[in-house]
Amino acid sequence: MNARAQALDLILRWQRSRQFADELLVEVREERALTTELFYGWLRNKSALEFIQNRQAVQPPRPVVAALIQLGLYQLHFLKLPAHAAVHETVALAKEHASPAEVKFVNAVLRRANPSLESAPPWIRWSHPEWLWHRWVRRYGAEQTAALCRWNNTPPPVYVRGTEPWPGVLEPTALHPLCYRVIDAPKFFANPGKYYVQDPSTLIAVDVLDPQPGESVLDLCAAPGGKTTYIAQKMQNRGRIVATDSSQARLKLVVENCRRLGVEIVTVTRAVPAEKFDRVLVDAPCSNTGVMRRRPDLRWRLAEKEIFRLAGVQRQLLETAMQHVQPGGVVVYSTCSLESEENEHIAPATRATFPPRDGMDGAFVARVQR
Predict the structure, then answer these.
(1) Among residues 149, 179, 258, 336, which one is catalytic?
(2) pTM of this prediction?
(3) Mean pLDDT (whole number) for 96-122
(4) What is the dotted CATH code of the domain comprising 3-112?
(5) SS3 sequence, the chain?
(6) Residue 336 known to be catalytic
(7) Where are the domains of the chain?
C-alpha cells in the first residue's frame, strides 16, 4: 500500500479499536514518513476537518468516505499540497473503497470545500475536546489555552540525552546541558549508541531527586527506563537502584535500555521490596496532558473522569514511596500532566513546566523531605 492507503487503513482501524496511534504505526514499514504525517495530521486536526466536511454534507457519510474526505482536506488545506495531486490521489483511493456515487461526492467536496474556520468554536478550530478546552480556559485563560493547543498541534522535534555532541546528527540545545536535538534522524536511529531519546522535561525529576554515588534509590513506575538510566548516570554507576513497574513486559525495556547504556547498578522487579531507600522517585501514571504534542490521539481517548481516577492511584503511590524512604531521605513525585488534581493537589510543586512558555513538554515535579 502507498502512504495514503496506509493512512486510511490506520484511521479506520484507530476508529474501530481502542489502540493508540503509536501502537498502530509500529506495523508500518513502507513510506513511513508520509504515512505518519497523514495519520498524525488527521488526528491533530480531526474536529477542524470534520467541521469543514460537514458544511458540505447534507447527511453524515459512511466512516470510510468521511475518512477519505478528511484525508484529502488535510492534504489540501493543511499540508498545502497542489490541488490536482491531492484531489486526484484521494479520488483514486476512493474508487477502491466507495460506490461511484460516493466517489463523485468525495471529488465534489474536495473541490468546493471552504477551509475557513472563523465561524467554528475555538475547541473545533484547535481540534481539542470541548471539555478539555473549558478546563484549560478556567486555569490558564483563553489566550494561553490557544497557545497550548497550537503547541499540541505542532509536530515535535526529537530530543535525546547524551554527554557529548554528534556534529551533523545532534545539535546542542539551551533546554538542558545533556539535551540534544536530532537533526539527522536516519543516521541517528541507525546507530543511537549511548544516547537515549528523551524530552528535556523528563530530566527535571531526576535533577530534583539529586541522587548521589553510593546511595540506594527506588524508582517506582520505572519503565521504560529513561529516568532510571539517568539516575544511574548521576550516580556514576555506583550504588544501588531498584526499578519497579506493574508490567513485566515493560520491565524488559528497562533491562534492555540499561544494557545498551552500560548501566550495571539496577535491579528490576515487579514487587516493591520491603526495605527503605535513601531516595525514591515516583514517576506516576497520569493523564499525559502535558505530552499531547507527542501523542496526538490522546485528546480523543481521554475522558475527564480518568483524571480523578488517576489522582487516587497517584496518592497511593506517593504513600508507598513515603513508606520506603529512610528518615531524612527524599521522595520526588512527578507526572507529565497539566492537571491540578494530579499535581499540586497531591504534593506542593517544586518545578512545573508549561509547554508554550518553557519550550518543552509539560511536567510537574514535587520534592518531599521525609
Answers:
(1) 336
(2) 0.93
(3) 95
(4) 1.10.940.10
(5) CCHHHHHHHHHHHHHHCCCCHHHHHCCCCCCHHHHHHHHHHHHHCHHHHHHHHHCCCCCCCCHHHHHHHHHHHHHHHCCCCCHHHHHHHHHHHHCCCCCHHHHHHHHHHHHHCCCCCCCCCHHHHCCCCHHHHHHHHHHHCHHHHHHHHHHHCCCCCCEEECCCCECCCEEECCCCCCEEEECCHHHHHHCCCCCEECCHHHHHHHHHHCCCCCCEEEEECCCCCHHHHHHHHHCCCCCEEEEECCCHHHHHHHHHHHHHHCCCCEEEECCCCCCCEEEEEEECCCCCHHHCCCCCCHHHHCCHHHHHHHHHHHHHHHHHHHHCEEEEEEEEEEECCCCHHHCCCCCCCCEEECHHHHCCCCEEEEEEEC
(6) yes
(7) 3-112, 159-190, 200-369
